[in-house]
Amino acid sequence: MGQIASSFSGEYRFPVYRPLDVGRNEIRLLTARSPSTGKDVVEYNLDYVSLDDYTPAYAKFLSQGGRELPTFFRSIVWENLTIRHEYPEMADEMWKGMPPSIRNESLRQACSGEEFSGANRWMWGDFAALSYEWGNPKSLSKIVVDDIGVSVTRNLADALKHIQRVCRSRSENFRGSDGQRIWVDALCINQLDIAERNLQVKRMNQIYSDAGRVFIWTGLAWETAKEFSDIMSYLATSALEINLDVEREQPREAKTVTKWSQLTLENVIWRDGMRNLMARTYFSRLWIIQEIVLANSTAEVFFGDFSCTLTTVLTGYDLIKLSFSLFAKNLSPAEAASMLADYSNISSLMGLVRVRYERFDSQRLPPLATLMAAGRLAKQLDPRDKVYALVGLMEPGLQDHVHPDYDPSATLEQVYHQFIVSVVQYTKHLDLIYQGAANPIRNQSLPTWVPDWSIPLRYTDDPGDCCFYANSRASGDTVHDFIQAEEPTHLICKAFKFDELYSLACSSSPWTDHDEHDCHPCTVKPPTPKTTNGKDLALDSTLTLGSSGHTTVYGEDVNDMLSAFWSTISMGYMPRSENEVAAFFQSVPWFNRSEDAQKVDFFSIMDRFQQCNKEIFIAGNRNMASLFPPLSLPLLHLEVDSAAYFVACLDMSLLRNRKFVTTKKGYFGMAPLMAEPTDEIFVVAGCTVPLLLRPVGNERYHLVGECYVQGIMEGEAVKDDSEWDRITLV
Questions:
Q1: Rounded to two decimals, what is the model's pTM?
Q2: Whether residue 9 sits in one domain with residue 81
């Protein structure tokens, strides 16, 4: 979407369109037809159909409770009802597997008549929707639409050719239709009509939700694709059970029970197949977030003439992580480094998996922060799509405030600014304004409280920064009362200053300008940590927090100090008590100085953090080095329980682009990389986390970013007598 019309600049020939009848809820569909004799070119008719043209059976289904079902499950329940007469046992098993809140027995009883057996939803049949990437706009192929030769990208032509061939081999014509019908955005939306494109973008959620199937095209097959497809088909019917012994007296024991015991990382065809599939550029597309999340359980992932279900791919993704946590302890350092590299290749799917699972588990739309964080992992042609491509997954009330506009006059700054204002007004919360805020290359024409989602991920904070704080409530139960400022670039907030920074540790991010995939050890001398008076902590050992009369709020007991420190480093994310968090971190051998350790990015980050900050004094005569484990532990020599925790930490990489800080009141915290000694910590109404602000005069502040502060994340700083003031973010 977005820039496709201009991308082809005259080389792209479109079908002949007539306007869509909005009053009839019309869409266009490609209906496959048999190719002309001797032609190896896919051919289609372009049909206009109404999504309101229901069959009597489907109209009854909707009126008896089907309309109230979440769109994610509506087509699944309908399919179950239409196969009951022909496949009763299969239908019963499908029904039992649905979430209890979806199993509407009165609906099932009302729709048990013969008229539902094999019924279509629409009078004209049914349809599938294609999810794919445009591909290289300079690499074109021809298809035929309404007897007109139309140029499309080679990737799209490959998708249509292979999917049509597979469907014909299965005799799949989508019940009652006279041919395979499929919706493809490049051809079913008039890309030259900006007004139509703006309207159709907001309808894509309905299209992908209503589609009887979603075909996901990832590209052509590889050498062992057939064997991989067979393995994935077996996985789809296998039972995967995880038995965890959580008794405190015994180490946790985890094991997998599958019908095929070799489904582990040791199976080269499966492991490399998953890696090959997940490394495909399709999974980096922004638009697939909406398309895949909205797809029902019959979504099918194609690679050439082979395929597997999307559910199986996501199960395989989970099994990759599980296999790592179970078998990592048996690997050599070199094998562990290689496995971690494999894992990182598919980690970009995490945001997508998180969004889809949240929707499946809760039957609700994903939280906005989760959605936008997932979008930051993806790529697109038009940076305005960082908002527009996700509209279909937002709450309906918020959707009403977002109006896609692909006119060239709609600037990126206007789109992002208007969107965040709409979010703040609609939600009455501020938890989106700090997403990616602390960034040296952000668009300087944007106010600091307007996120710049166009920045590539390599320059941003951790992609899940908003997601880590799902259970935080630093401002208690307060909400943001939007006040229209005289200057549109200003945001007026109710807040109080909680504390000021006292010392800042060195960052654990690389200090060289090497590429993000360069894993060579960093040898450049790191910057020196500072206190707010500018003195050099690392060189002047007499200037300590203790010697200056400074103490912490966590007490002098070593165990309490240890727990507070490591809970801060993990930003409260670890799902255990503080003592268990501390014990875990001390068991992990971050500081094996071998080349293998340096090749693993997370080890390198932790190693740099320890090496550069070990002489910083935390309180009294206790320095940071005393809180770290010894250097002699072998790499990845962990119990299974710790290995699982390690994988969770690997997912987070919390220290990337953050600094450990102490405050004047004696708190520990994690601040953005751009934090400076003069920055101040505020509790802001309607924001679940403290914000780090930089004074610019006249009660105006620049937003530096979010700031984790150990001990106030659950509202401890908010008192009945707290004095809230009005401040302005600019």
A1: 0.74
A2: no
Whether 593 and 667 map to the same domain: the answer is yes
pLDDT tens-digit map of 417-464: 999 999 999 999 998 998 877 777 788 899 999 999 888 654 334 444
Q: Give, for 205, the enclosing helix (H) or strand (E).
A: helix 194-210
Residue 684: exposure state from Cβ atoms within 10 A (0-12, 13-18, ≥19): buried
Tokens describing residue 220: 């052509």
Residues 13 and 145 in one domain: yes
Residues 626 and 705 in one domain: yes
> Which domain range does residue 615 map to?
494-709
Residue 200 lies inside a defined structural domain of this protein: yes
Query: Which residue(s) pair with 619 in the sheet?
Result: 622
Query: How far apart (Å, rounded) are the C-alpha atoms in residues 582 and 671?
Result: 20
The encoded tokens of residue 637 equal 């020599």
Classify residue 619: in a domain, yes or no: yes
Contact criterion met (CB below 8 Å) for 699 and 497: no
Q: Tokens for 584?
A: 């875990």
Residue ending a domain, among 69, 86, 116, is: 116
pLDDT-based confidence at 233, cuts 50/70/90? confident
Residue 44 lies in a domain: yes
Inside any domain, residue 554? yes
Distance CA 582, CA 570 (A): 10
Number of domains in the chain: 3
Which bin fits 563, alpha (ψ -120 to 50), beta or left (φ > 0)? Answer: alpha
Q: Are residues 99 and 170 in the same domain?
A: no
Residues in the chain: 730
Range 177-188 average pLDDT: 82
Of 279, 706, 252, the C-alpha closest to 461 is 706
Query: Are the C-beta atoms of residues 687 and 473 closer than 8 Å to each other?
Result: no
Name which of 158-172, 329-343, 486-500 the model is least confident about.
329-343
- Which stretch, 312-326, 384-398, 446-460, 539-553, has highest mean pLDDT? 384-398
| pLDDT band at residue 284 under the 50/70/90 scheme | confident
Q: Which of 201, 217, 233 is the last residue of a domain?
A: 217
Query: CA geometry: angle at 269 spanning 263 and 274, to 5°?
Result: 80
Q: What is the 3-state secondary structure (H, E, C) of 118-187?
A: CCCCECCECCEEEECCCCCCCCEEEEEECCEEEEEEHHHHHHHHHHHHHHHHCCCCCCCCCCCEEECHHH
Q: Residue 562: which H helix or E strand, with range?
A: helix 558-569
**Is 702 in contact with 660 (CB distance < 8 Å)?**
no
Range of lowest pLDDT (206-210, 221-225, 510-514, 570-574): 510-514
Query: Do 131 and 147 share a domain, yes or no?
Result: yes
d(CA 608, CA 599): 13
How many other CB atoms are found less than 10 A from the CB of residue 604? 20
Together in a domain, 33 and 82: no
* Token code pair at residue 280: 């495909």
**Which are the contacts of 296, defined by CB distance < 8 A and separation ≥ 6?**
72, 73, 75, 76, 209, 211, 213, 214
In 3-state terms, what secondary structure has residue 500?
A: strand
Asked if 88 and 177 sit in the same domain, the reply is no
